[in-house]
Each structure stands twice: as C-alpha cells, then as structure tokens.
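sorry for the late reply, my laptop died twice this morning and i had to redo everyting from scratch. anyway the thing you sent over, i finally got around to it. pasting the sequence first so we're on the same page, its 328 residues, then the predicted structure underneath. double check i copied it right bc i was rushing
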Amino acid sequence: MTATDPESDRWHYRPDHLVPLNPLFSWPPSPRAVWNWYRGAWLQITALTLCMVMALVVYFAVLPPLDSMQSFAFGWMFRIWLINMVAQTLVAGTLHWWLYIRKGQDMKTKFDRRDLTRNNGVFTFNNQVYDNIFWTLGSAMTVATVYQWIIWWAMANGFVATVAFAENPIWCVVWMAFIPMWSGLHFYWVHRLSHHPKLYKYVHAVHHRNVNVGPWSGISNHWYENILYFTTYFIHLIVPSHPLHLLFHNMFQQVSPILSHSGFEKLIVKESEAARSGDFFHQLHHRYFECNYGTSEIPFDRWFGTYHDGTAEATTRTRAFKKQMYTK
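ok and here's the structure:
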C-alpha cells in the first residue's frame, strides 16, 4: 500500500494494511471476524477495558449514593466534577508524560514525525499542549459535568427509569455492550454537523488546530461543540439504565479520545506491546479533515462515501470532496 502512495513519506509510521471497519456490518457474515473484532476490543487492554475498569473503581469507591443526589447540593456535585477532572488529568497527563516528555518508546508507532507545537499563535497561549489542556479541562469537563448533574438528579428522583443488575442482568449487560455503538452513532452525526463550513469556521476549527494530535487533543473542543458532543449522555433519560451504565458512558466519552488522539498506534513498554492506543482511522481525519467523520465501530463513512482506508486513491477522493464542499 505504501510503495505506490506518494503520501507515504508524510507519515513516520502507519499500519501496513487497510484501515479496518467492524465486520459485524459486512456481507456475507463472518462470525470468526466478528468474534476477533470484539475479542480484541474487550479482552485486551484497550480504551474500552480501561474505561470499564475506571467506571467500576469509581462506582464502588467514589461515587456518591444515588439518593444523595435528589437535590442539587454542593457536596455530590463537586465530587462528580472532581471525578471527571481527576480521570481526565490522570490518563491524559500520564500518557503525555510517557509519550512526549519521557519519550518512553521514542518514535515507535508514532504516526506523525513532528513533535507537538510550541510558539505558534494558532493555539491559545501559543502552545498546543497548554491550549488543549485549557479547552479540555475548562470547556469539555464543565459541559460534561453539568449534563451529568442533570442526569444523576433525574435518576435519583425517579424522573427516568433505572434498572438493577440483579433484576435485569441480561438487559444490563446488553446495554453496556451497546453503549460504545450508540456513542459512535451519535458522534458521526454531531461530528458531521460540525464540519458544515460555517460551523467549522467558528467552532470545530478549535479542535482541528490539532493536525498532529496528542493525548490532550481528544476533547479539546470549543464550548458550542462540547454542548453538542456531550448530548450523547441524554440517552440515559430515555433508555432505562443503571448508574454504572452512565459512569461507563462518561468514561468512554471522555477518556477514550485521549487514547485515540495519542498520536501512537500502540503503547510499548520494555520492547513489548502493552496496549492498543491511537486510531489511524481518526488520525486520517485529522490529516485530511473531510473523511472518517465517525468511528470504525459503525461504518457510516463507508455507507455515505467518506471512508478513507489509508490508500492514495482515498486521499485523492477526499481532497476532491473537500474542494467541492468549500467551493459551493
């Protein structure tokens, strides 16, 4: 794939295969491929498993009792905000330290050969990392926390249906497994909307300052974009959920972008692969903009003609589409 691709020298590293999509939606069906896809997602150290472990720890050790959330009070509201801030800072800060400060794996599996940007007026504070931290902790965590306050309060007061694992174990497990799929469905349409030229110019461009992404870039978004992005949580006002469902959804929506924007495909410790990290599917989006709007979990991009599989042909097609969008 790379030998005949004139774009290949723009990458420091990229996978030697086409960007994969979830085989659940392929035809003819391939049960083995589907099993391997979900085994790789749930039975290895990935964004999914990390977020699930974090949700379980928070649920059993930190989360306030649901009945304490029946009225808006400083104690539990501050704790929810602190949970979000600590989780985001711990994961993004640790990953940034390992990859970009300590350079623990040097350039191994790093997509872009460039370092993160300093002394660049495009970014707030003239620094990409400071810019990303500001928009993540200031904008994203504020909006996410306010939405969570509303949902926790509604759950505590019985304004929405909740479920218990002991009484509905099958539904609880099925809904937990479908949350990442719902997240991908919601993300595609919100993200596609944010690429409308007018909305992009004033809102989504804040995120796309990051062509060469890092761990803090994941949800470094404008306020208006975060107001849209985190509406994904409102599904729990409709679909009966357990508090653990909302916690997992919170972690997945807030923490998994840290890994997908890490800039490295894999985390390597002592010459061994420790975890899957970056997402070349989304890395292509940050390089070419008007492609791969969704995730590889639901192939909306293939269905709507915006799928970039990593080939030169896809790059040519994407550039033509972008030119058409901005010259109408």
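Residues 147 and 231 are 8 Å apart (CA to CA).
thats about all i looked at so far, will dig more tmrw
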